[in-house]
Design a protein that fits this description.
Shape of chain A: globular
Mean pLDDT of chain B: 92
Number of helices of chain A: 15
Helix content of chain B: 25-40%
Strand content of chain A: under 5%
Low-confidence stretches of chain A: 278-292, 294-299
Structural class of chain A: mainly alpha
Oligomer: heterodimer
Distance between the termini of chain B: 35 Å
Low-confidence stretches of chain B: none
Shape of chain B: globular
GO molecular function, one term (chain B): ATP hydrolysis activity
Pfam families (chain B): ABC_tran
Protein name (chain B): ABC transporter ATP-binding protein
Number of helices of chain B: 7
Number of strands of chain A: 0
Organism (chain B): Paractinoplanes tereljensis
CATH superfamily of chain A: ABC transporter involved in vitamin B12 uptake, BtuC
CATH architecture of chain A: Orthogonal Bundle
CATH topology of chain A: ABC transporter involved in vitamin B12 uptake, BtuC
Family (chain B): Belongs to the ABC transporter superfamily.
Number of domains of chain A: 1
Largest sheet of chain A: none
Largest interface: A-B, 38 and 39 residues
Chain lengths: ~300, ~260
């Protein structure tokens, strides 16, 4: 039994190990910030399924690059952006979008599996693309990750208000002159970049724990937009950095740690959200009164 | 007095179909004009033209002295009530805030002045009690009050209401219309009120623009809502029946939408 736990949590030589993952921690924190921000828009625009679809295509791109012996990050980016733009262009309505993603996703995953099967190199590289890796962030890669994070962050700051308007209230936003149609592909590109970054660290299968769960959790406890954003970033950074710190020393990939922290935060927020609904001014039996009013009304 | 809205000899085709032609309409500050007509008669297209989202086939539209254009700060827009997704991270005050500066680039910095303006307009429409409540928890009537605050917060000269009464219960319909009427009297905001529901707007409409099958009539309620005028426009027998303070229109080709 101790052997089992030892496999999952092993803090021997922790100080030395910590020095090794210095780069990963910085990358994780940066990804947490960007992922937390972008996930609020993913929730507002109802795109979690799209995130999953993009990450599978990103995986296909990365494994293709691995097979060809070219830059894996570039491959992952290419797959990601292509998927993001296709989904953005073809699926403006939710039903269209979901069916396109449902078609693209298994195809991407299948391609990725094919490339990996043909690849004769180290198997750790293969597994890492799907489930994440932690020690693998070298300095050039870190530079790339930080540069992309900065780019996404800067773009988000510029389009923040109109993107919020277009994402939550598209009809009135359009009436007020917000370029709703233009913001959509711009956001998909930013999302593609963020997904490609996440694939490098948490792996293609678990991107949603960074680009969906944090905001989904935050939206359970508050409707104040500024607080949702703040909490979402906080949750994402905690999951990323906490996941890396816990995974350190074990032989297990980073992703189960990240996803578990992220999931526990979500559950906690649901419980808090439910409790608040009963005794806060926001809730205060409001749902119940609404239901009574509806029953009392003629249909 | 210079008009807020001047439509001059305007024609709009939709593909090969003519929605309306040679339309002239001038709206003065504080005037309440109801736009009535069946589905597909070009009511929504008229609003799109005013919002600068659709070009006229011919003619001109001037709003507060300038040609209609996208993102005009002179226009406030009230859409029809529709369900807002559960858990959307917006409170009533945030929705109003979007009406104030949601179209601007950059971040929204917290500030006292902005907050005061939002509080003031929420107070004016009587929505202060639920200013901090999530918008998706609001009832239809409450949501429309907040929508009106959202449209008014930037102090527009012209208020465009696009079916704001749809799917509201009769009491909320009455309250929302009365609220719009109150604002135009207090602030001199001109109102163009597109609706299927005739009766809620009857007490307030200074004039009616009725669109039908490429034809239109403009005039006071008494001038337009008569059996003769409507029968002529629709080329079929239409009866306008007045009972007390209500009007019933019978015999329209598309009767389901009128009450």
């Amino acid at each position: 039994m101790t052997g089992f736990w030892h496999q999952i949590f092993n803090f021997a030589d922790y100080r030395e190990l910590l020095a090794l993952v210095h780069n990963s921690l910085i990358a994780g924190a940066a990804l947490g910030v960007v992922g937390g921000l972008i996930s609020t828009f993913v929730m507002m625009r109802d795109l979690p399924f799209a995130v999953h679809g993009i990450s599978e295509l990103s995986f296909a791109g990365a494994s293709g690059a691995l097979l060809l012996g070219v830059n894996v990050v570039a491959g992952s980016l290419a797959g990601s952006l292509l998927a993001a733009l296709v989904i953005g262009a073809l699926g403006s309505r939710a039903r269209d979008r979901n069916s396109i993603i449902g078609v693209l996703m298994p195809f991407g995953l299948g391609l990725g599996v094919l490339f990996l099967a043909l690849y004769k190199g180290r198997s750790a590289n293969k597994f890492g693309l799907l489930t994440g890796q932690i020690v693998a962030v070298d300095t050039p890669q870190l530079t790339w990750l930080l540069g992309t994070s900065a780019l996404v962050l800067a773009a988000l700051v510029v389009i923040w208000r109109p993107l919020t308007f277009a994402s939550t209230d598209p009809e009135v936003a359009a009436a007020r002159g917000v370029p709703v149609g233009l913001l959509s592909p711009v956001f998909m590109i930013l999302l593609g970049l963020t997904v490609a970054m996440s694939v490098q660290i948490v792996g293609a299968l678990l991107v949603l724990s960074i680009i969906c769960t944090p905001a989904a959790a935050a939206m359970r406890v508050t409707a104040a937009p500024r607080l949702v954003t703040l909490l979402s970033v906080l949750f994402a950074v905690c999951s990323m950095v906490g996941g890396i710190l816990l995974a350190l020393g074990s032989s297990i990939p980073i992703s189960p740690y990240v996803t578990t922290i992220s999931f526990v935060i979500y559950l906690t927020c649901r419980v808090i959200g439910r409790a608040r609904r009963l005794d806060s001014p926001i809730g205060n039996g409001y749902h119940f009164r609404q239901r009574i009013r509806r029953i009392g009304q003629p249909a | 007095m210079t008009p807020i809205l001047a439509i001059d000899d305007a024609t709009l085709n939709y593909g090969s179909r003519r929605l309306w032609s040679h339309l002239d309409l001038t709206v003065r500050p504080g005037e309440f004009v109801a736009v009535l007509g069946a589905n597909g008669s070009g009511k929504t297209s008229l609003l799109r033209v005013l919002l600068g989202r659709q070009r006229l086939t011919s003619g001109t539209v001037t709003i507060a002295g300038r040609p209609a254009h996208r993102g005009s700060k002179d226009i406030g827009y009230v859409p029809q009530q529709r369900r807002i997704d559960t858990l959307t991270p917006l409170r009533a005050r945030d929705l109003v805030g979007l009406g104030l500066d949601g179209h601007r680039w950059g971040l929204n910095l917290p500030g006292g002045g902005r907050r005061r303006r939002i509080d003031a307009v929420l107070g004016k429409v009587g929505a202060d009690a639920y200013a901090d409540r999530p918008v998706w928890l609001l009832s239809g009537g409450e949501q429309q009050r907040v929508r009106i605050a959202q449209a008014l917060v930037a102090e527009p000269a012209l208020l465009l209401c696009d079916e704001p009464l749809l799917s509201l219960d009769p009491r909320s319909q009455q309250e929302v219309t009365a609220l719009v009427d109150e604002r135009r009297r207090a602030e001199g905001t001109a109102v163009l009120f597109v609706t299927h529901e005739i009766n809620p707007v009857l007490p307030y409409a200074d004039r009616v623009l009725w669109l039908a099958d490429g034809r239109f009539r403009i005039g006071t309620v008494d001038e337009v809502l008569t059996s003769e005028v409507l029968s002529e426009m629709y080329r079929t027998q239409v009866d306008v029946i007045r009972t007390g303070d209500r009007v019933l229109v019978a015999g329209l080709p598309d009767p389901a939408h009128f009450s």
